[in-house]
Amino acid sequence: MTNHVKQGFEAILVAYDGSPQSQRATDIAFSMAQALGSKLLIFAVIRPPEPAARAELNAILDDAREHYEQSFVLLRERAAKGGLHLKRR
Predict the structure, then answer these.
(1) Environment class of 34 (CB within 10 Å of its CB; exposed 0-12, middle 13-18, buried 19+)
(2) Predicted pLDDT of residue 32
(3) Are 24 and 53 in contact (CB under 8 A)?
(4) What is the per-residue pLDDT for 1?
(5) Quick check: 21 pLDDT over 80?
(6) How many whole angstroms separate alpha carbon 15 and alpha carbon 63?
(7) If 0-12 CB within 10 Å is exposed, 13-18 middle and 19+ buried, where does residue 44 land?
(8) pLDDT band at 64 (very low <50, low <70, confident <90, very high)
(9) What angle, rounded to 10 degrees, do the helices at 20-36 and 54-81 form?
(10) What is the DSSP letter of 51?
(11) What is this structure's pTM?
(12) E-assigned strands of 1-89?
């Protein structure tokens, strides 16, 4: 008798910066996570200007945090509709 083992990924990690490319990567990651029963980890990424002064960097991080909070509301809603759970850290 042959043992069949479901192969897949325990977790899928995708970087998200709001660009069309990262949105497409997120679409693929959602599909893969649903099909494989995997956890989905989405990391928000930004690239600060170089060289960034401390005050400038803090302002950039605050703007990015606000932007991603709004974006992640939509991602969490989408995940819930697809039976996936996203954790915020």
Answers:
(1) middle
(2) 93
(3) no
(4) 44
(5) yes
(6) 18
(7) middle
(8) confident
(9) 40
(10) S
(11) 0.69
(12) 11-16, 39-44
Identify the bridge partners of residue 85 per DSSP, sorted by sequence position: none
User: How far is it, in rounded angstroms, from Cα 79 to Cα 58?
Assistant: 30
For residue 88, what pLDDT is reported?
65
Q: Report the C-alpha gap between 29 and 78 in whole angstroms.
A: 12
23-62 confidence digits (pLDDT tens): 999 999 999 999 999 999 999 888 766 776 777 778 888 8
For residues 62-76, b (16+ Cβ closer than 10 Å) or e, as one string?
eebeeebeebbeebb
User: Residue 78: what are its φ and ψ, rounded to 5°?
Assistant: -65, -45
The closest of 34, 21, 12, 19 to 67, measured between CA atoms, is: 19
Q: How far is CA 11 from CA 3, 8, 17, 29, 36, in A?
A: 23, 9, 20, 10, 9
SS3 42: strand
